[in-house]
Design a protein that fits this description.
heterodimer, A: about 40 residues, mainly alpha, about 45% helix, about 5% strand, B: about 600 residues, alpha/beta, Nucleotidyltransferase, domain 5, DHBP synthase, 3 domains, eight-stranded mixed beta sheet, five-stranded mixed beta sheet, 21 helices
Chain lengths: ~40, ~600
């Protein structure tokens, strides 16, 4: 059961990513990576 | 006794499944760094680097529970999201990175948590780990950086500026099918389908003519800034790369070569064409970066920066007035880079630069094995003079002394040394000692103060990270044509043919006493005897085998090869000569899969 829920969650996540993350064209693009993103947990 | 209040930062690299490594900083001091392959004896091993970590802790005099911070050289969640969706990340994935566990998909996560239950865990962007590794081991306070490799989390190249340790990634090339993967794809196509074999093509390229650049150009798109992408979405997996080989064959007209098949001129020309394209793209990227940032210094890092031919040409061309190509800017030093990236937060406003001790950052070899004792050589005078005399007499000498090197190259602590003037030494080393392809050159280790007398550049290359060219007056006149690759290789093109490639290039290691004190003494003694300030320096291993680590491993490799003398710590041993050729080949076979 838990596995099935995880699989559904994963598929939803992938669909969400594909829907809201456009394919990037070739070449350099401006980076949005936050440089100091090193918070410890 | 270690200070219990010390801040101990452990960097771990290898999450992408290869070249696992670790580095330890204790209150900003670099205690040690090592690669797991040296312990497991599997080249490019990507398992959790438990033994490399233990080695670092031992060197730092710490127990595991004293580690305060563990930092991984990648953000697994971001890589995982990319692998799942096939889309390079953006605002949404960055947001998810703050909500979901950042270490989701971390191959090492559970083992690391068990080993370091009290530590805080961090994940660094993969390319920023490379950049930090390069920056904090460079002479620069401020620089532009160009990081190009096979795959970051979801990108293949990045560029930006780093100022006193504060890095800003300004541009990136999304997806993994970029310049690094292109080089790997062609490496596989030409029959060198073992991980990390790209350097073989770089060594092959000088034999060929770059007449196939147009054919290769059908495989990718590019622009004036080096914005490079393969026309097909090839992934950085074994299956995807193999599946793409028919496409390469169709576009180039050259079928994929089997590993055991002979190298034809078309294969060699394909390697030359690939190297030409690679250099052109790197130059375009560097010019773009220089134009956009106006910076005077360039850090060249990532796996592609190990292409020392491109790095050497980039430096000579002067696209940037100064360039630094770090020996740990690739995956083998990614743990060190990640640790430095985190540690620099304690040194804001300063150019934090720990003592890297010539990158001799691993443990000592331990004592010579008992089996070696009957073969110990008694000699008068000091070790360096004695060995210099043996080298000058044409002997091949293996050296296992001091801390082990970090990175792909032996820098004199786990090396094989030989006389570059000796006729046939190149073939002898390749075929009877290294058991590898005959076309590949050896590196000259040269006293730094004499570099300009022999080569067209006197600039430093402390870690074999740049090529230079033999000065014209030291070159022989070559015939117009050669009947074979072998004939071209064997032609006496200069007085030190074993370390000069057929195009007169050489992958230099410039030797300074403050960086390589022991190797400097060996070469100085050889120079005093012969007038030549150069020795062959190649890694102490055979094809497919990681570089030896301990004295026992050194002895094992020694007795199974045709090396004449072995230096273990301060002792010298002669070869027992007890193994038959068949026994040696049987021993060698265990490394064949990685060769």
């Amino acid at each position: 059961m838990a596995r099935a829920i995880r699989q559904i969650g994963l598929r939803l996540l992938v669909a969400l990513l594909r829907a809201f993350t456009p394919a990037a064209p070739a070449g350099w693009r401006r980076s949005s990576r936050p440089p100091g993103d090193l918070a410890g947990r | 006794m270690a200070d219990p209040t010390a801040r101990a930062t452990l960097g771990i690299g290898g999450l992408l499944g290869h070249d696992a490594n670790a580095a330890l900083l204790v209150d900003g001091r670099l205690a040690g760094a090592a690669q797991e392959e040296r312990f497991t004896r599997h080249k490019h091993d990507g398992i959790f680097p438990r033994r490399a970590i233990a080695d670092c802790l031992a060197q730092g005099g710490l127990e595991a529970d004293a580690v305060t911070d563990v930092v991984f050289a990648e953000k697994p969640l971001q890589a995982h999201l990319f692998n799942l969706s096939g889309r390079a990340g953006g605002a949404l994935t960055r947001t998810l990175g703050r909500i979901l566990p950042e270490g989701w998909g971390n191959l090492y996560g559970q083992q690391a948590r068990e080993l370091f239950p009290r530590a805080r865990f961090h994940h660094a962007w993969h390319h920023l780990s490379h950049v930090a590794g390069a920056f904090h081991t460079s002479p620069f306070d401020r620089a532009a950086f160009l990081c190009v490799d096979g795959k970051g989390e979801d990108y293949s190249a990045s560029a930006g500026v780093i100022d006193h340790g504060e890095g800003r990634m300004l541009w990136e090339q999304p997806y993994e099918n970029g310049l690094g993967l292109f080089y790997t794809l062609l490496t596989y196509h030409l029959g060198f389908a073992t991980f990390g074999s790209e350097y073989k093509l770089m060594g092959l390229a000088p034999y060929g003519e770059p007449r196939l650049t147009a054919a290769l150009g059908r495989l990718f798109t590019t622009d004036e800034s080096g914005g490079f992408r393969l026309r097909r979405p090839v992934r950085f997996t074994w299956d995807s790369l193999l599946a793409a080989l028919p496409w390469v064959a169709a576009e180039t007209g050259i079928p994929a070569r089997e590993k055991s098949a002979p190298l034809g001129q078309e294969h060699i020309d394909l390697a030359a064409s690939l190297q030409r394209i690679f250099e052109d793209e790197i130059f375009k990227m560097a010019r773009f970066l220089r134009r956009e940032t106006g910076e005077a210094n360039l850090l060249f890092c990532g796996g592609c920066a190990q292409n020392c031919v491109a790095a050497g040409k980039l430096r000579t061309a002067g696209v940037f007035p100064a360039i630094f190509n770090s020996p740990v800017g690739g995956d083998m030093g990614s743990g060190l880079g990640a640790a430095l990236l985190l540690e620099r937060t304690r040194h804001r406003g300063t150019a934090f630069r720990p003592d890297v001790r010539g990158f001799y950052l691993g443990s000592e070899p331990g004592p010579a094995p008992a089996a070696a004792q009957p073969w110990r050589v008694a000699f008068a005078g000091n070790l360096h003079d004695f060995i210099a005399g043996e080298l000058a007499a044409g002997k091949i000498v293996a050296v296992v002394r001091g801390g082990m090197e970090l990175g792909a190259r032996a820098l004199g602590a786990r090396s094989i040394l030989a006389d570059p003037r000796a006729p046939g030494m190149h073939s002898r080393l390749n075929l009877a000692v290294k058991f590898r392809e005959s076309f590949r050159p050896f590196a000259p280790a040269i006293l730094a103060e004499h570099t300009g007398e022999w080569f067209d550049s006197a600039a430093e290359s402390d870690y074999m990270n740049y090529t230079a060219y033999l000065r014209p007056e030291r070159r022989a006149v070559l015939p117009g044509d050669f009947p074979s690759l072998r004939a071209r290789l064997d032609f006496p093109r200069c007085s030190i043919p074993s370390v000069i490639h057929v195009d007169f290039s050489a992958r230099l290691q410039t030797i300074r006493p403050e960086v390589h004190p022991d190797l400097h003494r060996f070469i100085s003694a050889f120079h005093a005897r012969t007038g030549v300030p150069i020795l062959i320096n190649t890694s102490f291993n055979v094809a497919g085998q990681p570089i030896v680590r301990t004295a026992a491993e050194g002895w094992d490799c020694f007795v199974n090869t045709d090396i004449d003398l072995l230096v273990l710590n301060d002792e010298v041993f002669r070869h027992p000569g007890e193994k038959t050729r068949e026994e040696k080949i049987t021993w060698l076979a265990q490394f064949a899969k990685s060769a």
